[in-house]
Design brief:
366 residues; alpha+beta; 16-stranded mixed β-sheet
């Protein structure tokens, strides 16, 4: 179909006008968006660029107006007077020395009868009546330094021994070898059964007018290593091979073996001084510690030995601690107070009881 030229030109104008209108609207919308985006960006940057400010507060304390304080409310000044201090070490030493000099020994009465032959035992019944304690003579460790002492003659004593352990009893023998030359001494005690040495003890030292001064004590038990205690008289201390803490060496100190011969020499030198009920206190050391032992002098007893009876003075050390031994010693009044019997009892009831075969046949050491 043919359109007239005028109509075609009119249509072309309308088309150009519509296209221009569309472009104009597009440009306006685009500019509006760009403007909005720019405003948002500027606002965001402005917010982030603002510095932060901390909010600080301060408390203003009110000023107290104190006009005056009554004099009665002001405490008076107290003047403290100081006294010169006493050195702790000196005070402690004085207390220990004074305590050891009169240290009491608690009574430990066993209800188990002594089944050894020749000894009479009595059962002590409980009573509510008040107990009267008579004063007795005490020979303390401080008195040992001036006590008279007679060294026993050089001798070897043979004993018959009963060993009990866990209710079982075995029998054997023991030998006590004592040697001295007036200046030094050597002492050995060995007990055995079935050819096995149950224990062996040695004590070496000096023999003086006041008694024995041990320098070394050793103790060897069956299947155990030997242990020892060393008495350093110059430094005044006792040291132990078991690495136990050292102990101060007191006047008249003994070891567990020499104490037997020390008591024998004291009794022989002055029997009247050690009457029944008197006590003797001296420091006794083993392989671990040294502590005061209190020996109670008891009545004379009659012992049945191998070839007859013998009168002996009994001396007892009762245990003071849970695992202490009870030590009982008998000294013959007819043979210069030689030890004719000794008995060591453990807390569980086990004991070693040695009785001299005969005090009529004492074998002198050549």
């Amino acid at each position: 179909m043919l359109y007239p030229i005028g109509m075609w030109k009119l249509n072309q104008k309308q088309s150009n006008y519509g296209l221009g209108l569309i472009l104009s609207v597009f440009v306006v919308v685009l500019l509006a968006h760009l403007t909005a985006i720019q405003a948002m960006v500027n606002g965001f940057l402005k917010v982030n660029a603002m510095p932060s400010t901390a909010f600080i507060t301060r408390m203003i304390e009110p000023t107290l107006q104190i006009e005056s304080i009554p004099a009665l409310l002001i405490p008076p000044k107290i003047k403290i007077e100081t006294k010169p201090e006493i050195p702790i070490q000196q005070s402690f030493k004085q207390t220990i020395d004074s305590t050891l000099a009169v240290l009491p020994e608690p009574n430990n009465i066993s209800e188990e009868a002594d089944k050894s032959p020749g000894l009479e035992t009595k059962r002590i019944e409980a009573s509510t009546a008040p107990i009267t304690v008579e004063p007795s003579t005490t020979v303390a460790s401080a008195d040992i330094a001036v006590a008279q002492f007679t060294a026993p003659q050089t001798v070897r004593l043979i004993y018959e021994v009963a060993f009990t352990r866990n209710g079982n009893t075995n029998y054997g023998k023991a030998e006590l070898d004592w040697q001295h030359d007036g200046g030094s001494y050597k002492l050995r005690l060995v007990a055995s059964y079935f050819g096995i040495d149950a224990f062996e003890q040695h004590s070496d030292g000096l023999s003086k007018a006041t008694g024995l001064h041990p320098t070394r004590f050793s103790d060897k038990r069956y299947r155990k290593s030997e242990v020892a205690a060393h008495f350093n008289h110059e430094l005044g201390k006792i040291t132990f091979s078991t690495n136990a803490p050292e102990a101060p060496l007191l006047v008249g100190a003994q070891d567990r073996l020499s104490v037997i011969l020390q008591l024998a020499g004291l009794l022989a030198a002055d029997p009247a001084r050690y009457s029944t009920g008197s006590t003797v206190t001296m420091q006794v050391a083993n392989d671990k510690l040294a502590e005061p032992w209190v020996f109670v002098v008891e009545n004379l007893e009659t012992l049945n030995l191998g070839q007859g009876q013998s009168i002996a003075r009994k001396v007892t050390r009762n245990p003071r601690h849970e695992f202490d031994q009870k030590v009982e010693l008998w000294f013959s009044t007819e043979n210069n107070y030689a030890p004719v019997r000794f008995r060591f009892t453990e807390t569980n009831g086990d004991f070693v009881d040695a009785v001299l075969k005969s005090d009529r046949k004492i074998v002198l050491v050549p």
